Amino acid sequence: MTAFEIMQKHYRQRDLAAREWKKKGGKVIGYFCDSIPEELVLAAGFFPLRIAGDPHSGTEEIDKYLETFYEGFVRTSLNMIITGKYDFIDYLVIPRARDSVAQLYSHLCQIKSLNPDIKLPVLYFLPQVQPRSYMSGFFNHDRIIELKTQLEKWTGERITKKALSKAIAVTNENKMMLKKVAELRAAEPPRISGVEALQIIGSSMFMLKEEHNILLTQYLSDIDKLPERSGVRLFVEGSPLDNLQFYELLESCGVTVVGEDNCWGNRYSDVPIDTINDPLEAIISRYLKKSPCPYVFFPTDLRADYCRDKAIESKAQGVVFYISQWDPSQIWDYPEQKRILDAKGIPNVCFMHQKYLISDKEPLEAGIKNFISSVGV
Question: Which residues contact 134 (CB under 8 A, 6 or more apart)?
């Protein structure tokens, strides 16, 4: 198998590497969102596994407990947890990110109290506050220190500066190579499709970073063999995309997704960790100051500027907003993002209230094709 085929495999079988780690006696920490410092988890000797949903997995069990107004990736993730598909996870860290994710902690606690036979990992809630401010920085700083202390309790050993520095080096190397992947997408012409990029980036969250770095090195060594892509260059802004459905539909219409503002895409790797400062403080600083996600409600121009700047950086000819059903965070951002794109003369279109499982593709495909024709390339 080629390096890319192995990454594809791990993107499809997202528990594969973690289960192998578990069989060898290691312990696994699952986590939601990209606000959990992977470096701390790695330095403590755990396998960090980002929890993802599955649009094809169903929500039958969680429907017994949960209201309908939750994003699809949240509902299916929770359904997978309580039905045992994540039964190999030892600990689950849930951050105070978007409301639906933050509420997972209380939901899981309540479900356990109602049904003690359900096997759940040990739960840990990581409080975080927004917006970005001097005082919220102090609060979030101390919460990450508390997370480090909890990791040390779970592992029974102190997390050393040496271990932190090693973890930083490994994840920074991964970010550096993922940025090269981003550059190949933004090249003229593009050398990597959006579908391929999501698999490359996503697989890094389901594998140990050292192994993923080896694959990335092999993959990037053959960039001259990558085919050139044609068609309209589009940038995607919107809700978390932990699957390929939307990109596959977009690119089947003859476009290339050259970048995105998404925690499953380029935003995951665009801010490295400063290696000059104390390693713990450097990790904390990176996660306090990383690229703004929709959870950063104020000021809204942070998000709008980021969207515009990244669209321009990727040389996009248009921006497609993809907003999932029950995603108030992204809806909050949209008006200001559209205003600033319009002011810059960047064509854009919004597909709102999209279901997690795209079962009826025809209306969405028609809207995509209409937008492509309006770009006028």
Answer: none
Reduce the DSSP state of residue 18 to 3 states and report it: helix
Task: Identify the three-state secondary structure at position 186.
Answer: helix
Longest dimension (CA), the chain: 61
Report the percentage of the chain scoring pLDDT > 90: 77
Is residue 36 a contact partner of residue 93, using CB atoms and an 8 Å limit?
Answer: yes
CATH of 18-159, one of 3.40.50.11890, 3.30.300.180, 3.40.50.300, 1.10.510.10: 3.40.50.11890
Q: Hey, which residues does 255 pair with through a beta bridge?
A: 232
Inter-residue contact 30 to 91 (CB < 8 Å): yes
Which residue matches tokens 């509902």? 75
What is the C-alpha to C-alpha distance for residues 89 and 121, in angstroms, rounded to an integer? 6
DSSP β-ladder status, 232-238 and 122-126: unpaired
Nearest to 127 by CA among 119, 118, 116, 138: 138
pLDDT single digits (tens) 291-313: 887 766 556 788 899 999 999 99
Evaluate if pTM is beyond 0.90.
yes
What does the domain layout of the chain look like in residue ranges? 18-159, 163-375
Q: How far apart are CA 41 and CA 37, in angstroms?
A: 7
The closest alpha carbon to 338, from 290, 303, 293, belongs to 303
Q: Would you tell me how many other CB atoms lie within 10 Å of the CB of residue 79?
A: 22
**CB-CB contact of 249 with 361 (8 Å):** yes
Place of tokens 């969207």: 307
The first and second tokens of residue 375, run together, are 């770009």
The angle subtended at Cα 276 by Cα 271 and Cα 280, nearest 5°, is 75
Compute the distance between CA of residue 138 and CA of residue 20 in angstroms, rounded to an integer: 38
